[in-house]
Amino acid sequence: MHYHQFLYKDLRVSSLGIGVEHLKKLSSNEVFEIVKAGLNGGINYIDLVWSLPNVIDGVIKALNSNDEPRYIAIHLGSGHKDGKYYRTRKPEECKQYYIEIYEKLPEKSIPIINIHYINQLKDWNKYTKPGSILDAAIELKDEGYGAFVAVSTHSVEVVTEAALHPEINSVMFQVNMANHALKNRDVALQSCLDNKTSIVAMKPYAGGRLLAAGKKTKVAGYMRAGKSVEFISPLTLTSHKCLAYTLDQIGVCCTVTGPACVEEICDSLKYFDIDDKDKNYDQELSEIVLQIN
User: Fold this and answer.
1) CB 3.0-4.6 Å disulfide test: which of 86, 103, 150, 230 passes with 114?
2) pLDDT single digits (tens) 190-230
């Protein structure tokens, strides 16, 4: 496993992280096995986009299986009702769901207060006003419930604004081959680097669409932070080339994959064992960019 320095507090984060997007319908034991495999492979970053009890119970059980410190990004604004995901923007309700998870974390966990799904600039402007969810995040940090504040977004404009905000230490954003030529993407990433705002890259496979292997595929807008696009995925494009591309981009210190089974997380971990020539993505990237443009 390779480790990068978080640009906040000199903390070191694994190049690969675990996302739980595809685990919400699994049992807590299945979640446990997947997360444990990742932790045993050296992963120290977990993004909890869901607060669903089956997911949280499985993750906590895996965290308790060893004593290594882990970064746990808890999404402030992601709740649950009647066994289903529920998004809230009410500050006190957001804090309630957050603390519910926080109190279950093992002692060596490093909690990240990740403001959930700020999708557009208008949302950023609304939820960073006094008395809004950003203030709730700052209060949680000041009260000792988190190491730092992050934001999860699908918008280049929000990334740029977050990079300039003194209270935001990390940004979670899509970085993949399907948005390589997206207008202002690299400007936003450079702004994060310049302002010491760490970048956690999500959707390195564009929701798996990049791995269609010679077939025509459609990447939805939310998977690339822009308009949806269609192209024929290169036959030679692999998961490891996708990971190499994402980790090579400006300021990226960690990329979070969304495994649905143990085999998928183990495949991601093989990235560190294969030759550099098998990670070279130049030809595949050229094919994709040419089709999109």
Assistant:
1) 150
2) 999 999 999 999 999 999 999 999 999 999 999 999 999 99
Q: How many domains does the chain have?
A: 1
Does 282 fall in a domain?
no
CB 101 within 8 A of CB 113: no
| Average pLDDT over all residues of the chain | 95
Residue 215 placed within a domain: no
Reported residue count of the chain is 293
DSSP state of 234: P
Question: Do the domain assignments include residue 256?
Answer: yes
Domain with 92, as residue range(s), is 3-207+239-277
pTM: 0.96
Distance CA 42, CA 125 (A): 37
Q: In 145-245, at which residue ranges do the beta strands (DSSP E only) sit?
A: 148-153, 170-174, 198-202, 216-219, 229-232
